[in-house]
Structure formats: structure tokens, C-alpha cells
Amino acid sequence: MNNKPFAVLGLACLLLVLTCRMAAAQEVGNPVALTPKGQYSLGLSIDEVLEKKHAGYELRADDSRGGGRVYDQGGKFENDQHYLLGLAYGLSDWLNIFAQAGVVHGGKFISPNASSGEEWEAKLKDQFVWAVGAKAQAFKLANGLALGLAARYLRYDDRKLGLWHENNSGYDDGSDWTTDLKIDYWQIDLTAALSLRLGPLTPYAGLGYTYSEAKEHGRNYNIHSPYYVEYDATIKNEDNLLVLCGLDLALGQNFSLYLQGEFMARTALGLGLSWSF
Predict the structure, then answer these.
(1) Which helix (H) or strand (E) holds 234?
(2) Which of 5, 6, 183, 259 has a CA positioned 20 to 30 A from the CA of residue 142?
(3) Hey, which residues does 257 pair with through a beta bridge?
(4) CB-based burial of residue 146 (10 Å sphere; 0-12 exposed, 13-18 middle, 19+ buried)?
């Protein structure tokens, strides 16, 4: 995993902690913190999806000579990084809407075949990614305990796949093929999290439901002859239960920082910095 983006953002946040007075602010990607009514929050976040497993799926391969096969595949995405700039608006003190946009970078698509024992791997190319969502506070008690609800829809389209490499044999598609394979992807997350404000610190933990679909499509072209294979598959996530925990820190001067971990349906780490105005 490339830790440089986390180190740079972490250093910037540390400098803000040392120079700012504590005050309230909210982060777009944080599921429990809210922007006050009539105000905006501008946020920058880095999310590293270390692993996201796929349910078993069928990969259809139709070649230009009239043949076709269906493969039973499994697999996962690994080390996918999301760099997102987001804007949230407080419709009320208990309800926010937000939008995010940025780049998805650095991932790998690993696709084993149980029948053949082969494990194919391809790099995922950089692509534009966007998301929209809403956050709400269901209740807040006098002792600071609160329940936050959040919903987010995230999407990217036409993300290119690199050439496939077979990990067991070492065979690389590049010796025989060029590729025009792409991934269309969408994901929806619904979460509920309990939080407890302790001065500038707000720890939180919760559960959620997540569902995603990835559409693999395109062709591999043989470089030795006018021959191609067209691929098509719809890939869904293996697990739907999402467990999350995190910490929100008010830095001061309307800045805030959050750190969040996600488990079960995916293993992910998120870090975000925001400014409210």
C-alpha cells in the first residue's frame, strides 16, 4: 500500500492541531458529524480500500470466430484509493446533503478460477469518481450520546483494465493480446452510528448495509491475427454487512479531522480534513 498520501495529509493535520484553538467543524465523509443549518463544509478525504471481495459470478467470453464460453469466477478488488473533494450543506441542524468528486487510483482486480486453479490479476487504471448522499441525526441526548444516519451513492464508469497476468504460471497477456476492457461500478452504503462527544473528540461506531455492482465489458485483441474475444460479466459484492468505527477531532478555526475504519463487507481506512464556513 502506498502510504505517502496518508503521511502528507497526516503531517498537515498535525500542524493544524499545534496551531489552532479547538472549535466545532464537520467532515463531509464522517457519518456522524453535521454541518449547521445554512452553512457549508468543504472536505478532502483519502480512502484506501484494502480488500473488497466479490461474490461468485459468471464471465462470458464470445470470440470473433463464433465460439463462446462461460467461466465461473470469484475474486476481489485490492488497494483501491479514492481521493475525494466534497461539499456538504446544512439543510437543518439535523440534516445535511453532500456531493463528492475526485479520482479512483491504484487498484488491482484479482480473479481466480476454481476449476482451472488459475489466478488472474489486472491493474485498474485511474478514473473520475463521484458520490452524492445525505446525513441525519436521529437523536442526541444531554450526555452527548447521539445516533447518526447516513446514505451515500458512489459511481465510476469506463474505468480501464490493464492486461491480465496469471499469478501461478507467470503468463502475461501482453505477449499475445492488447486489451480494451473496462469496469463500470456503483455502490450504495446505508449506515447508522452511535457517537459520544468528549470535548473536541467524538468517537463513534456503527453498522451498515452496502451493495455494489461492477460491470466488466470489452474486448481482448490478438496481436498475431484479426481475432478478438469479447467479455461480459456482472460482479456483486460478497458481503453486505458493514462494520465501522472512527474518531472525529475538532482542530479549531472551523477545521476538523476524522479517521475511520471499515470491516466485514470491505476492509478500508479513511482519513479526511474539512473546513466549515
Answers:
(1) strand 228-236
(2) 259
(3) 249, 273
(4) buried
Give which of 145, 137, 232 is closest to 183, Cα–Cα.
Answer: 232
Rounded to whole angstroms, the Cα distance separating 138 from 146 reads: 7
pLDDT in tens, 163-178: 999 999 999 988 899 9
Beta bridge partners of 275: 42, 255
Tracing cell 478478438 back to the chain, one arrives at: 228
Three cell numbers, residue 34? 453535521
Secondary structure class of 36 (helix, strand, coil): coil
- For residue 32, name the pLDDT band (cuts at 50, 70, 90): confident
Query: Cell 505477449 maps to which residue?
Result: 175
pLDDT average, residue stretch 245-253: 91
Q: What is the pLDDT of residue 33?
A: 78
Confidence at residue 142, expressed as pLDDT on a 0 to 100 scale: 93
Q: Are 155 and 133 in contact (CB under 8 A)?
A: no
Handedness of CA 201, 102, 81, 230 (dihedral sign): positive
